[in-house]
Amino acid sequence: MLEIKDLHASVDGTPILKGISLTIGDGEVHAIMGPNGSGKSTLSNVLAGREDYTITKGSITYKGKDLTELAIEERASAGIFLAFQYPTEIPGVTTMTFLKTAVNAQRKARGEEELNAVTFLKLVRQKAKELQVDEDMLKRPLNVGFSGGEKKRAETLQMALLEPSLAILDETDSGLDIDALKIVADGVNRLRAPDRSMMVITHYQRLLDYIVPDHVHVLAKGRIIRSGGKELAKELEASGYTDITESAA
Amino acid sequence: MSDQALTYLDANGASADGPAWLDVRRRAARASFADAGFPHRRVEAWRYTDLSRLIAKTDWQPAVPHEGAVLVPEGRSNPFAAIASHKLVFVNGFFRPDLSELEGLPTGVEILPLEAALESGTKFETAFDANGPEAVAPIAALNTACAKDGAVIRLGEGVVLDQPVQLIHYTPDGGATASHTRNVIELGAGASMTLLEAQIGWGGSYLVDRLTNLTLGEGASLTHVRIEDEDAQAVHIATVLGDIAAEASYVANTLATGGRAGRLQTALRFTGESAHAESNTAYLLRDKQHLDTTIIVDHAVPGCTSNALAKGVLDGEATGVFQGKVIVAPHAQKSDAKQMSNALLLSRDAAMNAKPELEIYADDVQCAHGSTIGELDGDALFYLRSRGIDEQTARRMLISAFLGAVMEQVPHAEARDVLSERAASWFEHQTSGEA
């Protein structure tokens, strides 16, 4: 699905990622853990194609193709989905209008028939119900005045509608209480499939109790310093990042 | 004395063979305009729109009637055509009975061209005396001195006009010609109507000056929807001078996209308590277009509410101007006045000048004014694109959302759709621009 080789990236001339190599197979869930400032969010933004980030070295291959050649929207239509840590508020664009525009833009880009209003509405209602997103929320401007939980549920709803091949969840647990976290995690787990891979970025082990990863990687100072199975997350929970980053240094 | 003004008046001034009450006013207006001249940048209220310079080096001649059929280019036809209405059409500033629809007017409704109203002996002394505040007075004088035709719309007491009235101005011919029109709109107590006005031109280089005198009686209500789309080489000025009586309401929504340079100036005065006035303007400019939105609201009496909102999208080297002024008289307690200007710059070379002013002499009032100038939100663009929406569509979504506040407030549903569609069609010519 995704193969990252020796990836270096910088923001405004400051190197943030300093040689990341990572391979995610079909259907695998990889957790990326690390302290603040380790480069976790930079990695997710680079994968989504954010233009403020410059790749200075290395390669990203997605489904056998060079990902870096694709524009932001082309990556989305190719199946990459970034669930934002802080979803952007967009006043004046209702959530429903946005969802329909996004779904049909991707269908069009893939040469599929666009969904008509009735079919789309049915689909949204069904998925929204599963994520406890009420209809009133869909009529409101996108993310504007949404609580932390509402924002993350809205992100998960988008993911459910867009059915990506590679979902990148950036600090999905931040700002969520335990009940909200369970709803979001249930939504994510329902989307686990043999042809859908996930990269779950998180600071805390807590999220991984609910979204159980196949592999765990620890990111520090722009490099992956340890990789292991799901038990690595538990180890980090007990010892903290200081031990592991110091022993690697 | 201004030579520029004298030369202009000699060529374009109205002849002095009208009714005596009008000739007196024309002579006074002529003298006053000749004295002050075309407003220029050293006049504070015209600092950002130097009309004297804009019309200089041109030998302006009066517009003449357009003979025969008007061939309207694609995209320039009457935007309100699908809305069943009474209709007055002017071409090059002259009334065209063959294009107008004035049959079957209900009792108590008078709609006719100014020329015909004058011939029938109707006097409009109050309207022609109204020069408005200093910022608009020079143009009021110019208009009084030069206006030959225009629309007269009068509703008797309590008359509620179900169908809107369309006031359509086409300017198909240019060649350094000027037209001055004067509209007089009077609504009796409790009367109510919707006015749909379009100013559309494609004649190249021309000058239009349209002045509308509004008088709303007690409890009267006027919804005014305007589309301004003059030729990209034209200079245009649209002035509204309004007196609003107790409990009356004036709501104006304007979409402006045309002209090389233009000024939409509105001066409203409350003459009775508990009245309401609202002016929402959206303007979309590109290349070297210039548009000045000037609005002055005089809270001369207590307990009135006013709201002025201007939202501009500026691309290329376009410049926008917002001048807002609220005056609250010493005894006008419980006045509530808001003014806001928001501009979205799509290019580094576009510019916006905003000058909100408050003159408040009462102490128990609520007044707010503000101004923002910004670019499209890069985070919002990234978010939309990260969901598969292409950059151009994402930009359009964000610009439409920005204008939404003006469009959504149009009280007439069909007219609201017309304005939204027209704003959307502006994007068809939109280049990628800078993020």
Give a structural overview.
The complex is a heterodimer of chains A (249) and B (435). Chain A is an alpha/beta fold and 249 residues long. Chain A has a single domain (2-248), classed as Rossmann fold, CATH 3.40.50. Helices cover 40% and strands 26% of the residues of chain A. Chain A has helices at 40-48, 72-77, 95-109, 117-130, 135-139, 148-162, 178-190, 206-210, 231-248; strands at residues 2-11, 14-24, 29-33, 53-62, 65-66, 80-83, 166-170, 197-202, 215-220, 223-228. By secondary structure, chain B is α/β, with parallel strands linked by helices. Chain B has one domain. Chain B has nine helices and 20 strands. Chain B has helices at 3-12, 20-36, 51-54, 114-119, 125-129, 137-146, 378-385, 391-407, 413-427, and strands spanning 61-62, 86-91, 94-95, 109-113, 151-155, 165-171, 177-187, 192-201, 206-216, 221-229, 235-244, 249-256, 261-270, 276-285, 290-299, 305-314, 319-328, 336-345, 351-360, 366-374. In chain B, strand 2 and strand 3 (94-95) form a beta hairpin. In chain B, helix 7 packs across helix 8. Chain A binds chain B through residues 48-51, 71-73, 75-77, 81-82, 84, 87-88, 90-93, 98, 101-102, 105-106, 109, 141, 158, 162, and chain B through 377, 379-380, 382-391, 393-394, 397-398, 400-402, 404-405.
Task: Quickly give the structural class of chain B.
Answer: alpha/beta
Number of helices of chain B: 9
List the chains of the largest interface with their residue counts: A-B, 28 and 22 residues
Shape of chain B: globular
Give the count of structural domains of chain B.
Answer: 1
Low-confidence residue ranges of chain B: none
Counting copies of identical and different chains, the oligomeric state is heterodimer
Q: Helices and strands of chain A: which structural class? A: alpha/beta
Number of discrete domains of chain A: 1
Query: Mean pLDDT of chain B, as a whole number?
Result: 94
Radius of gyration over C-alpha positions of chain A, nearest whole angstrom: 18 Å
Helical residues, percent of chain B: 10-25%
Q: CATH topology of chain A, what is it called?
A: Rossmann fold
What is the CATH class of chain A? Alpha Beta
Give the termini separation of chain B: 49 Å
* Helix fraction bin of chain A: 40-55%
Give the termini distance of chain A in whole angstroms.
31 Å
Side by side, the strands of the main sheet of chain A go 6-7-8-3-9-10
